[in-house]
Amino acid sequence: MEWPIRLWLFLAGVAANMPSKEDCGGADPDAWISPTRASRGFHVICISPDCSAGSDSGHCKASEPTAKVCWGAVKSDCQELPGLASILAEEGPDSLVSLQDLLAEGRPVANPRRFERLLKARLKHGKRPLNYAFFAVEDDTQTPRRLESLTGQSGMILAFEGGAFVWPGVRVGFRRNMTIRPANAPPIELQMETRSLQPLVVEISSFLDASDCQHIIDKALPHVEKSTVKHMDHDVGKPDANWRTSSTYFMQSDDSFLHFKKGA
Q: Which region is the signal sequence (predicted)?
């Protein structure tokens, strides 16, 4: 039968293109790249540094920085990312714009109309034309650091088209042990578990205990009201419950407990 051979060749190709932990500066690709599901507008880049000076370990072979990208942060769609060496030589935040352009050349953006609209708005207000946000993974157990420049950067970079960081789900059942370090407070040890990929649902354990929950309930309950909607002209006078049945209160972080949790 031919299909087992074809399957083996496909899997071998995936394995060859997948960045290794060494490629990613020590970050574990399995903690950030999904085995099965692509994420729109989210890509993982691994940059290997310039090894022209040689290495005692014998692993350095490239005369300039090289990179691999996993489009959609899925293992089945990883490939070399040429053209990055010149971008890494650029100074300051403009290097991030160049990386954004390089990614857009490799794959169309997930929402082209929104992407162009946001770019025009940023240019209109004199801002840098950067819709992507880039984050460096320096430790799999720590929150990635937002990049302001690519100068001297290597290792794993997370690229988010919408400009906002989202914890990757990876796969249902995936668990991530994290250490959050709030300012002027002890570190918090958390475990995040992916419950669903579509929609993305991540459960965070040990973030709130029973007394924390009760504090929030007691503070919010007197202010909870039925949610409202804005009506179109032909719907004026109709009950809001025709469209929305929830109750809502937007609670301010105006006490020491909530301020601490927000900072975490």
A: 1-16
